[in-house]
């Protein structure tokens, strides 16, 4: 978990003891390219730390996959709706590369957060960050053209073109692959 401290520092400063106590809750997972960390229909009880690798979050509707986001390590992910509502998750998380991952029981993280204000602050700031990014995506689908959504995605994640298959990129901005080809061609002509 060499990236864990660097990642969490963006949200809150933890003492060495707090960092150790938090890290101790995580256990390693082996995730190979194209394996799933989560599958729709399962009940989620864990929070995930993606130390190395690239992932996509998607859901299925009428047999078609809709990519909702990409996760680039290092990052933390929790399927809060499933955890809080005690319902099966709607989402799938698939590794797009071989990955170095860890998971921790969400309730244990919460218990530690109750005892440690800095850890509570860390997760509040992290959830705030996730919420803001979700709202930004939602607004983009309301206000932005397909081309602007593509250009924003590339500007925020330049490595995406090298790491993610184009059909997943197309799905994430709400277009078919042939439409993405036209958008990319027009962007290169400018």
TrEMBL record:
It comes from the Bacteria. CDD domains: CAP_ED (cd00038). Residues 10-130 form the Cyclic nucleotide-binding domain. Transmembrane segments: none annotated. InterPro entries: cNMP-bd_dom (IPR000595), cNMP-bd_dom_sf (IPR018490), RmlC-like_jellyroll (IPR014710). This is Crp/Fnr family transcriptional regulator.
